[in-house]
Write a structure and sequence with these properties.
6 helices; alpha+beta; four-stranded antiparallel beta sheet; 214 residues; 21% strand; 8 strands; disordered C terminus
Length: 214
């Protein structure tokens, strides 16, 4: 049974993501970042060492600056957050790599995902009726090569299920009118933590909801 995520997990997860980005900007290699990031191995809580899937979202002035994540665990939550923070900052194909001048302005959000649950995809209408706005992250899988997800935070900008699902199809490279009986749809929930959850740092940039690319 996985260890429950504590309410104050953001005090570890957000500085972990932000610190990894800072170390890379200072020239530290990925393996050294993984080895040397805080908390130290003997101080890491059990839940941080267990398998976990996360997304790391970066914004600047309410605009998306990078978002990369994992839909299923690939290792410990500790490793996953570090790798996704570095990927969001430096390897999101939609953006140039983050540079040091941008670092003070970034807002960091870490989302920890639940296990996905498959929806009976008998029809698009049935899928839309099953979605829970504001709660569900959604994964659309269309064959072996097309797959896309929106985090639950995207409901802030796309509150109507039909509009939300149409944008998700577009993100997967599909026409907004597309539907197939072979479509697979999964949902998940997240626990999201922002800079404001990190030790109550009132000087940290605030997170934003301009997230339709997440």
């Amino acid at each position: 049974m996985p260890t429950p995520l504590p309410d104050n997990a953001g005090r570890i997860l957000v500085p972990l993501a932000r610190g990894a980005i800072r170390l890379r900007l200072q020239g530290t290699r990925t393996d050294q970042i993984v080895m040397n990031s805080l908390p130290a191995p003997h101080d890491r809580p059990e839940w941080l060492q267990e398998p976990g899937a996360s997304f790391v979202t970066l914004t600047i002035n309410s605009h998306l600056r990078g978002c990369i994540g994992s839909l299923s665990p690939r290792g410990s939550l500790y490793d996953d957050v570090i790798h996704n923070a570095l990927a969001a900052a430096f390897h999101d194909p939609r953006f140039d790599p983050l540079d040091a001048t941008e670092y003070p302005s970034i807002s960091v959000e870490v989302s920890v995902l639940s296990a996905p649950v498959a929806l009976p995809a008998l029809s698009e209408k049935a899928v839309l009726e099953s979605l829970r706005p504001g709660i569900d992250g959604v994964v659309l899988i269309a064959g072996p090569t097309r797959r896309a997800t929106f985090l639950p935070q995207v409901w802030d900008d796309l509150a109507d299920p039909a509009d939300f699902f149409a944008h998700l199809k577009r993100k997967a490279g599909l026409p907004t009118t597309w539907w197939s009986p072979d479509a697979r749809v999964e949902t998940y929930t997240v626990r999201a933590f922002t800079d404001q959850d990190a030790d109550g740092d009132d000087d940290a940039p605030t997170s934003a909801s301009d997230m339709t690319d997440r």
